[in-house]
Amino acid sequence: MKKVAFIAPTYPVLSETFIQTEVDAIKASGHDVCVLAFEIEDYQHKFDYNVIKIGKNIQADMFKNLHLSGVLEAMKFIREQKHLPKRSLFNYGLKLALQLADIKADHIHAHFCQHTAAHAIVAAKLLNITCSFVAHGHDVYEAAFDIDKKILASDFVVTVCKDMKNDFEKMAAGNIKLLHCGVKTDQFVVEDKKPSNHLSFVFLGRLVQQKGIHYLIDALAPIAKSLNVHLDIIGTGEMEEQLKERVKLKGLSNHVCFLGAQPHHWVKENLSKYDCLIAPFCFSQTGCVDTGPLVLKEAMAVGTPVITTNIMGCKEIVTSETGYLVNEKNVVELKKSIEQFAQLTFEQRAKMGAMARQRVEKNFNALKQAKQLSNWIENRV
């Protein structure tokens, strides 16, 4: 099987566990894997594969591994790029190619379709090996850089929801695939919830505009006391102080608690303790949006129902059997869905959670997703 090199801007990143999940799943599928990143985070976890900083420890004898016939193709692709500095793209693409040749990589798979995908394509052409990339959200809808050129220059491209796939197909006639990010379902344990006289909700994510947390605070304000609701907000971000002030102004200080950022093992151990995850995702003013949120699948994997919005991949993840979908930025609908959830019996909520777990096992299992990606890598179809 091909040795797969994953390319990422930074690795590992607490809020981007989907990359690590995919690397682990591809490795479990039988591939030799490694990760190359422009920045390596200081992280205590030990990986059972190499994590290499791009451009580091380049040796002169590595140049013998280049395929000179690919230089013309690489230069043609570089000339087509309008949003990246061409000299830097060539220099780092060359360094990346030398490193990939040295570790004998057979396929390059880049996460995000900005500079990581561009450098991966340049390196692949210099080495005459196959290349693909996966797009996620802000790299498509907030800061898109010559995506059409990258689609045409790759062996295949992965989109994480149907809306994104449709958008890519309008950009270029390339080999465009659909594959939802997967969850390691064996690592998420369903624990029986206990009846309680209050509702325990959780929001998990960066505190930024596209997460829509401010709409959730507004929706809870008139009903939190009467429904005896408690909301834990997990995460940090640029809106944190603004949101804390909003909670005070809305009289929710006794109902909303900010717990800060938590490691991924905390998520696995605690998500099952909540009655419901609420994720009111939306498009930001700049166009940034979550396209296939992993947190929805992780909550569902531990049997926790979800209330979210009907945008992008959210509407492909959550169904009426596993939670509620509302229109983005609609406080009235969000409030109504919370009230409807509150009216369910304990048994009805438990059934909704069980259906959520079943849906993740069937449609979003990381190993199943990895087998599909592996097949594309091996066969380029």
From TrEMBL:
Instruction: Name the InterPro entries on file.
Output: Glyco_trans_1 (IPR001296), Glyco_trans_4-like_N (IPR028098), Glycosyltransferase_grp1 (IPR050194)
GO terms (molecular function) for this protein are: glycosyltransferase activity
Where's the Glycosyltransferase subfamily 4-like N-terminal domain?
16-186
> Which Gene3D superfamilies does its entry note?
Glycogen Phosphorylase B (3.40.50.2000)
Is the keyword Transferase assigned to this protein? yes
UniProtKB keywords: Transferase
Q: What stretch or stretches form a coiled coil here? A: none
**Residue ranges of the Glycosyl transferase family domain?**
193-359
Q: This chain belongs to which protein, by name?
A: Colanic acid biosynthesis glycosyltransferase WcaL
